[in-house]
Amino acid sequence: MFFAEDRIEHMRAMILATDEKDRRAPLKKLLPMQRADFVGLFKAMGPLPVTIRLLDPPLHEFLPKREDLLVEIAHLEDTKPRSPKLKTLRPLLARVQELHETNPMLGLRGCRLGIAFPEITEMQARAIFEAAIIIKKKGGEPHLEIMVPLIGSIEEMRNQSAIIRRVAAEVFKEKGDKVDYMVGTMIELPRAALTADNIAEEAEFFSFGTNDLTQTTFGISRDDINNFLPAYMKAGIFKQDPFATLDQAGVGQLIEMATDRGRATRPNLKVGVCGEHGGDPESIKFCHRVGLNYVSCSPFRLLVARLAAAQAALEEKQAGGEMKDLLRNSGSSTQ
Fold first, then answer.
1. Quick count: other Cβ atoms within 10 Å of Cβ 204?
2. Where are the beta strands (DSSP E) in 154-269?
3. How would DSSP label each residue in 155-202?
4. Most CB within 10 Å of its CB: which of 3, 39, 204, 220?
């Protein structure tokens, strides 16, 4: 998602705030920006379902890099020790130091942001529902699917779902209208897959975030795998890049297990895949075999994905015909 400069400024003000009161002020300024985004999105999508993932990236991604700040401050202290800019940069560095994480992709991100700072989830939910009501009153038919990222337990899902549903009720009462919506989650952690039957008590749909699910299952960083992937490919340990083609034996087993367990709790559970694997033909065929409803992929891979999905459906149909012939022949031979 791309941010204009004023939006980045408000995001940074929210992140740099040290208490809820100070965070709510920039969030209030971000609300109309987010609402306008969703109005445009719902207008463009018409009656089609729209899945919206709540804020997911680590907060540090919206701040200057710690190393850059250290260099800039050191340079100013050496050349312009009385520069008024230092009064801004020093507290900024202090906050960046506080938020610094050794492994940010396993740190304060995803649903953890909304649990630690519930006002963030509130603002996003309000922007979504207010935008949906605006579009509905103009004759549109928005269909919302709000997705909570990085869930690892039903307690996390309940926490965020409760905020979303509370804000929805508040907006519907204020506007005198309502829209249909679902609250679901992105399954990105092995624990979420293993406890999918419990999570499905609260989540109305699943989307497998296969990029992170691959990272957390293998214990391999997607950003760093190229340091040793060539050696693994040469040694035959990996037949292909697990971030390009789904690891069906491991990650795939978690997907199939979570789908079965989720639907045991909620039979009509909508399940899909979101990630690089959504555009890979072999991965798409696997998703079809295990009963997923859809795959999501980059627009650049859309034609390949559609062709692979059609081939998977055709192969299943042909396999079904072959099975019927086998059963027919078997029946004839035993009569």
1. 17
2. 181-187, 205-209
3. HHHHHHHHHHHHHHHHHHHHHT----EEEEEEE-SHHHHHTHHHHTTT
4. 39
Tell me the C-alpha distance between 114 and 55, whole Å: 8
Residue written as token pair 């804020």? 55
Q: What are the tens digits of pLDDT across the range 71-107?
A: 999 999 899 988 989 988 898 888 888 888 888 888 9
Q: How far apart are CA 168 and CA 176, in angstroms?
A: 12
Q: Which residue has the tokens 């050794």?
A: 102
Question: What is the number of other CB atoms lying within 10 angstroms of the CB of residue 147?
Answer: 21
Tokens 């989540």 locate to: 203
CATH topology of domain 1-58+111-187: TIM Barrel (3.20.20)
* Whether the predicted pLDDT of 248 surpasses 90: yes
* Beta-bridge mates of residue 181: 144
Which residues are within 8 A (CB) of 174 and not within 5 positions of it... i.e. 6 or more apart? none
3-state DSSP call for residue 106? Answer: helix
3-state secondary structure of 327: helix
Out of 65-79, 109-123, 146-160, 239-253, pick the least confident: 65-79
Q: Rounded to whole angstroms, how far apart are CA atoms 92 and 89? A: 5
Helix (H, G, I), strand (E, B) or coil at 117: coil
DSSP symbol at 183: E
| Residue with tokens 């004759």, as numbered in its chain | 139
Tokens of 56: 């997911």
Q: From CA 47, how far away is CA 28, in angstroms rounded?
A: 29
Q: Residue 206: beta bridge partners?
A: 185, 271
In terms of DSSP bridges, do strands 270-274 and 49-53 run parallel, antiparallel, or are they unpaired? unpaired
Residue 114: helix, strand or coil by DSSP? Answer: helix
Q: Whole-angstrom Cα distance, residue 72 to residue 43?
A: 44
Kindly report, residue by residue over 213-228, the tens digit of the pLDDT: 999 999 999 989 999 9
Which residue spans of the chain are classified as CATH 3.20.20.60?
1-58+111-187
136 CB neighbour count, 10 Å cutoff:
17
Task: Give the residue among 150, 152, 184 at the shortest CA–CA distance from 57.
Answer: 150
Q: What is the 8-class DSSP label of residue 39? A: H
